[in-house]
Amino acid sequence: xxxxxxxxxxxxxxxxxxxxxxxxxxxxxxxxxxxxxxxxxxxxxxxxxxxxxxxxxxxxxxxxxxxxxxxxxxxxxxxxxxxxxxxxxxxxxxxxxxxxxxxxxxxxxxxxxxxxxxxxxx
Length: 122
Fold this sequence. Notes:
The chain has helices at 32-50, 76-96; strands spanning 2-8, 14-20, 54-57, 63-68, 101-107, 110-113, 116-118. It has one domain (2-118): 2-Layer Sandwich (Alpha-Beta Plaits), CATH 3.30.70. Strands 3-4-2-1-5-6-7 form a seven-stranded mixed sheet, with helices on one face. It is built from two helices and seven strands, in the order ββαββαβββ. It is α+β, with helices and mostly antiparallel strands.
């Protein structure tokens, strides 16, 4: 299963992304859900990196992490657009492939999965 954690600041802007695993039993490069998630994550990460607001790593296949800074003078509406686009795309993918993709949204000190809020650390 591909597990993705999106952490958001209290103002709704993306703070960090962590993805690990592989969606499904198909070989790498042959799974539609994994390819779609990879495209969303890489594109968002590249946009944020090119804007000078993100840094991270993909140290091995099946692993991606990046953090997002909000420097002074940053276009918050653009950052929110990237944040919203990534979240919507990954949530839609999870709905279509629930046994292959798990998206967790962390806001502040809590986690939200499938619309239910869980205390920090569960």
